[in-house]
Specification:
This protein is mainly α. The chain contains 11 helices and 6 strands. Helix 1 runs parallel beside helix 3, helix 4 runs parallel beside helix 5 and helix 5 packs antiparallel against helix 6.
């Protein structure tokens, strides 16, 4: 999508729906050439950063806008993941960045060859960046309120990551019901809709006059929800962060116990007094190689 369209539509949403919190999510899977290779579009890294910077410049002061990045960690981008996170924070372009494992049907099986050990190592390495995100998100909070907000945010990220990693090679029960079809809907380019991106299409918006609410509460979706059975019946447990996050909201046990526990268990990955290391911003933007941070 062109930078001008992203900028225009973001402004339109913020103006038309002032009470709506807009999460503008970009996909960046590595630095420069690596991202372009993974996405198959030359110059895509530069264009994505330009789009983010333009939106940030003109709408960044709006508290209802959060600019986020999802990074799918591949063998190509694995060693650059930390530096990418540092770069985005140094540029002050993001509210959050999520490091996602590869999911779905792959054209190139080599894309999914990272080991569990490598993934766990990456989780530990980028966790200080997660805390830096929390520090910025809650910079205006004080005392216990700030401590609680940071605990929940960081625990939430680690909780979601743990579920993703457990499902990296095969479906594994989340320990809570999936709410696909109840809280989420996927619309394809041709109007076909589904409960989740890993589930088959069950109808077309054209048959519901493009009314999303009618499609979400349709007989077809109700039947789909029954077929999924909260994930257990269909055994379709996946690694999709959006669906895991949506499902968490409706699971009190996860909110009250599992998320704080995830934060506590990750304490070894925290670095007291952590500061962002120096990084060659100009070199990155000129597609030059930079040293890998170990």
């Amino acid at each position: 999508m062109k930078t001008e369209i992203i900028h225009r539509e973001t402004g339109r949403l913020l103006d038309s729906c002032p009470d709506l919190t807009v999460h503008l999510n970009f996909s960046i899977d590595g630095l420069g050439h690596t991202h372009d290779k993974v996405r198959g579009v030359p110059g895509n890294f530069r264009k994505t950063i330009a789009s983010m910077a333009l939106v940030k410049k003109n709408y960044g002061s709006n508290p209802k806008l959060l600019i986020n990045v999802a990074t799918v960690v591949t063998p190509d981008g694995y060693k650059e993941a930390f530096n990418l996170g540092v770069y985005l924070l140094k540029k002050e372009l993001i509210a959050t960045q999520f490091f996602e494992v590869v999911r779905g049907d792959l054209r190139d099986p080599a894309t999914k060859t990272l080991t569990r050990e490598q993934i766990q190592s990456l989780r530990s390495k980028v966790y200080p960046l997660v805390e830096e995100q929390a520090n910025r998100l809650f910079r205006d909070f004080k005392g216990a309120k700030k401590a609680m907000a940071k605990t929940f945010f960081m625990g939430f990220v680690r909780f979601v990551n743990n579920i993703q990693d457990a499902n990296y090679f095969a479906p594994t029960h989340w320990g809570m019901s999936c709410t696909a079809g109840k809280t989420t809907i996927v619309v394809d380019h041709n109007g076909a809709f589904r409960s989740c991106e890993v589930r088959p299409a069950i109808g077309k918006l054209q048959d519901y006059d493009f009314n999303m609410k009618r499609a979400l509460y349709s007989k077809a979706m109700k039947a789909e929800i029954q077929e999924i059975g909260g994930g257990g019946k269909a055994n379709c447990w996946c690694t999709h962060g959006c669906w895991i996050m949506s499902s968490v909201k409706f699971n009190p046990r996860a909110i009250l116990f599992r998320i704080p526990w995830s934060h506590y268990r990750a304490k070894a990955d925290r670095i007291p007094g952590f500061t962002l290391p120096e990084i060659h911003v100009e070199a990155i933007e000129n597609y030059e190689s930079i040293p890998v941070t170990t």
